[in-house]
Write a structure and sequence with these properties.
By secondary structure, the protein is an alpha/beta fold. Helix 2 (19-37) packs antiparallel against helix 3 (45-56). The strands form two sheets. Strands 1-3-2-6-8-7-12-13-11-9-10 form an eleven-stranded mixed sheet, with helices on both faces. A two-stranded antiparallel sheet has the order 4-5. Helices cover 40% and strands 14% of the residues. A hairpin with a 6-residue loop joins strand 12 and strand 13 (407-414). The protein has two domains: 5-227, Amidase signature (AS) enzymes, CATH 3.90.1300; 236-275 and 335-359 and 373-417, no CATH class. The longest helix has 19 residues, at 19-37. It has 16 helices and 13 strands. Belongs to the amidase family. Pfam families: Amidase (PF01425). InterPro entries: Amidase, Amidase_dom, AS_sf.
Length: 441
């Protein structure tokens, strides 16, 4: 099985593991499995081996938190010599002259950028497929791996790489993490916002362990203290399994995962009680407006005629949202006041991550817009509101369905600045209920 990122970096720093060997083994795994998994849009084989040799020769090797660790990056990332396609053939394809912030921070930490992972066009959907490939769930390749960080989740869950970068605008880290049995953290907007989707989109880590997620978060945020996972004192945790506003039914095993986690956290000394925020009805409209308008703004730099049919419909709707003034700050503020009210008496909210099971893998990009919207809405009932609020949230694996074998999970949400608390609670769940790290176990 692939080593954890923490173990790889420690061994490279100690001189007992060669980064070139680590990267070559990862490339071998990708070559053997990615034809089925479909995680990567571009594998940087030659470049990654060269970069691994450069890491081995660095004079600061002994201090690098990700020394020699092969990391997959989502195909929205500016990397010198590469272009970020955003899942589309309609956008600019000129290679970047320099690294963007994410790539630069990863390289500074000693990571090797092994490839760009597949995303749906403009990162709109919670299923990841493009004309040249489908990102599949390593636990059962007949199912989608989620989205929009579906390629990143598939790469980690298949054991191709120990870590991957993602971004999350409506659940795009947490949803694929939940579908693929990973730890996925959406930081607060104050920590790692990328400014997209009218402030809803942030960068975040996908990993097989809490410690790995913490070290990648610390690097992405350029905040070394985040790599230390605390052991939290007793906190007040409210739990809810009702989909906000819509109240759609949630599958039994996804609800049961929350009860299981509640029991484990209660045994760790935390106070658990049924409680949900008072979600305003306007909250759904507020986040949906941004989900429509964000990609429409991005598409200004794309050839509209070459976009997928579903994307053209989405962009048209987004432009209408902007013209009619539906991006309203007061809608977000109304929701923020309700969230602050809730977190005045609770430290954490726990919910299912998924409000429905994953969809089947397929060529969703060939289907009509509404055919994509309906299953997307069913899946993401618990996630997007926290992008609108800008609060941090983490997905933690809990087990596997007795029926389908797919992973189950919970979502933990904290007030702004609560990333370390979420990691600490996730570590307690990991210790009490260890999960299989990858589908290759």
């Amino acid at each position: 099985m692939v080593l954890t990122a923490v173990d790889i970096a420690a061994s490279v720093r100690a001189g007992t593991l060669d980064p070139v060997t680590v990267v070559q083994e990862a490339l071998d795994r990708i070559a053997a499995a990615d034809g089925v998994v479909g995680a990567f849009r571009r594998v940087r084989a030659e470049e990654a081996l060269k970069e691994a040799a450069e890491v081995a020769a660095r004079p600061d090797l002994a201090s690098l938190p990700l020394a020699g660790v092969p990391v997959a990056v989502k195909d929205v990332t500016e990397i010198a010599g590469e272009f970020a396609s955003h899942g589309s053939v309609a956008g600019p394809s000129s290679p970047a002259a320099t690294d963007g912030v994410i790539a630069a921070r990863l390289r500074a930490a000693g990571a090797v950028l092994i490839g760009l992972t597949r995303v749906p066009e403009l990162c709109i959907w919670p299923m990841t497929d493009t004309p040249d490939g489908i990102a599949r769930n390593p636990w059962d390749p007949t199912y989608a791996s989620g989205g929009s960080s579906g390629g990143s989740a598939a790469a980690v869950a298949a054991g191709l790489v120990p870590l991957a970068h993602g971004s999350d605008g409506m659940g795009s880290v947490r949803l694929p993490a939940a579908m693929c049995g990973l730890v996925g953290l959406k930081p607060g907007a104050d920590l790692l916002s990328e400014g997209g989707w009218f402030g809803m989109s942030v960068h975040g880590p996908l990993a097989t362990t809490v410690a790995d997620a913490a070290v990648l978060l610390s690097v992405l945020a350029d905040t070394p203290s985040l790599a230390s996972v605390p052991s939290p004192s007793a906190v007040r945790i409210g739990m809810s399994t009702t989909v906000p506003v819509l109240h759609t039914p949630v599958p039994r095993e996804l609800v049961a995962a929350v009860s299981q986690a509640a029991g484990l956290l209660a045994s760790a000394g935390h106070a658990i009680s049924p409680a949900a925020p008072r979600y305003p009805a306007t909250m759904v409209a507020g986040m949906t407006a941004r989900w429509l308008a964000g990609p429409a703004a991005q598409a200004e730099n794309f050839d509209f005629g070459r976009l997928q049919g579903r994307t053209r419909a989405h962009v048209r709707a987004g432009k209408l949202v902007v013209r009619t003034g539906l991006i309203r700050e007061r809608t977000r503020q109304r929701w923020l006041s309700r969230a602050e009210e809730y977190f005045a008496s609770h430290d954490v909210l726990m919910t299912p991550t998924l409000s429905h099971w994953p969809v089947k893998a397929g060529r969703w990009h060939e289907r009509r817009w509404l055919s994509n919207v309906v299953p997307s809405t069913r899946l993401a009932g618990f996630t997007g509101q926290w992008n609108l609020a800008g609060y941090p949230a983490i997905t933690v694996p809990m087990g596997r369905s007795a029926v389908s074998g797919l992973p189950t999970s919970v979502q933990l949400v904290a007030r702004p600045g609560g990333e370390s608390l979420l990691l600490g609670l996730a570590a307690q769940l990991e210790s009490a209920n260890p999960w299989p790290r990858t589908a290759r176990n």
